[in-house]
Amino acid sequence: MKLPIVVIMAVLAPPAVLAQPPGLPPAIRAAAEGLSAEQIAWDLAYLASDELRGRNTPSPGFDAAADYLASRLERAGLKPGGDQGTFRQHYELHETRIDTDAAAIEIAGRRFAFGRGFAMRSLASPISAELPVVYVGHGWVIPGRKIDPYAGVDVRGKLVLAHGPRALPRGVEVQQIGRVAIDAETPFVAAAARGAAGVLFITQASELVRWDEIKGQNTVRRELEPNVPSAYAALPITSVLLAPPVTTALLEGEAVTGPTALRVAEQGEFPATFELRKRVRVHLPVSARSVYRPYNVVAILEGSDPTLKDEAVTVFAHLDGAVGSREIAGDAIYNSADDNASGSAATLAIAEQMAAAPRPKRSVVFVWDSGEEQGLWGTRWFVHSPPVPLARVVAHVNVDMIGASRRPGSADTASPLVTERNEVFLIGPRTLSTQAMVLLDRVNESYLKLRFNRQYDTPDSEFFYPRTDAGPFLERGILTIGFTTGIHNRYHLPADEARTLDPAQVHAIARTVLASVWMLGDAAERPGIDQPLPRTVPRHP
Ligand SMILES: [Zn+2]
């Protein structure tokens, strides 16, 4: 009997896992070396210029930045990956504003106005109804500790009255990473899951001192339509923070009085759940609704292999900045240079350079996403409608804030959260994929030998999850690899300007990202997640 030749070869070939991944091919090294530090610095300076005003989503400055990218991508010969043959991938953003002049809560004939009486904590939908109220203490559900203040009561269609929103029982800790509570349901999630109409929070003393700031917040909801599930989606239920006089009026004549409730809560001991005798009229009407159509900039570099080109590596840099309204030291422009003109300019240069070089087997999808700072809008939309099916995205590379270094004389010399020059925080591979880690280390050893700092590459780091564009990908089981130089004292402030950054640092990381992306795209075996997904990452379909 003759065995087919392919079977014999498969038997004789060593297991792939033992194979040393190849080093960087000379042509790819040359392409990476072709990246111009000056060009990246000019692009960064333009994207972070006062003229573009921080590239808020949506804004004329963002449009100007996107036009700048699109014309360059077209000239470089990249394929548009957006709508109808363009580089723009639009999504719909719905904005709802609460009419704060008309908003009121009525308790036993007394009317409390917005601002003095209560503030918004979250806005899911308007409420205008007289409703029963169920007091649920801290309002958290923690199955591991058998804590469930909703057990045995029906809160469907009713208002939930809780302390907080972060008033935990004494001695109980909940690990929370950003908005994600590990092995617990926050009052927002718990109340929404049980069909409550809204949440009234008895505001904690620690929050009352910030009332002037608090009362101006959360009066506007902006969210994708249709919504795309993610830890950073808008909160699922409308909630308000009650000022003490409202709490007192609400609990007057009830099983627990306002002053008692406030006192025991500060001690971390909560009265048992009960339904109030009185109903409450909550009037939170909408004053205006608007629809916006922001977009991501998407460009595709088709792979060279007839089969593997159907798979892709995505490279993301959010193009938007976190634009605040407060003027600081005479500066009102939030240039968002490091966060993230640095990653945007580097990714543009990488796309241009890769388009002119030999292509990897798999395709590469370059995305300059929008709304990252306000709710990961662009990335959530991308995973909802990707130009390549998500199952064929082998890795997501995130380039976010790569311009700072602790070089001597810089603003960051003494900053413990910023990397040295030629050092970068690498986030994802150690936790998710041995295969990817080995590949990236090998590329790096055969090229620039940057110091890969893996301190944030742990499941409980907020930089691992969910603070970045990695979140929506990880939630869908896709390997993520993040490059960043860390957080500095200009983060999200008008002082995040191009002149504070280190062009040599951006250049070194851009070259390393290019080499890494090329090798991920060309790897014989798909470098997917080969470790268990940490429980800090909730799964979304
Ligand atoms: Zn960022």
- How many individual helices? 16
Mean pLDDT value: 94
Radius of gyration: 26 Å
Shape: elongated
Helix content range: 25-40%
The count of DSSP E runs of length 2 or more, i.e. the number of strands, is 22
- Please indicate the percent range of residues in DSSP E strands (runs of 2 or more): 15-25%
Classify the secondary structure makeup into a structural class: alpha/beta
Largest sheet report: 9 strands, mixed
Bound molecules: zinc ion
Our measurement of the CA-to-CA distance between the termini, rounded to an integer number of angstroms, reads: 48 Å
Tell me the CATH topology of the largest domain: Aminopeptidase
Would you spell out the secondary-structure blueprint of this structure?
Blueprint: H1 5-12, H2 26-33, H3 37-47, H4 60-75, E1 79-80, E2 88-90, E3 93-98, E4 104-107, E5 110-113, E6 118-122, E7 127-135, E8 159-164, E9 176-177, E10 180-181, H5 187-193, E11 198-203, H6 205-208, H7 211-214, E12 220-224, E13 239-242, H8 244-251, H9 258-266, E14 274-284, E15 286-292, E16 295-301, E17 312-318, H10 337-355, E18 363-369, H11 372-375, H12 377-384, E19 393-399, E20 423-427, H13 429-432, H14 434-445, E21 451-453, H15 470-474, E22 480-484, H16 503-522
Parallel strand pairs: 7-8, 8-11, 11-13, 17-18, 17-19, 19-22, 20-21
Antiparallel strand pairs: 1-16, 2-16, 3-12, 3-15, 4-5, 4-14, 6-13, 7-14, 9-10, 16-18, 20-22
The structure holds zinc ion.
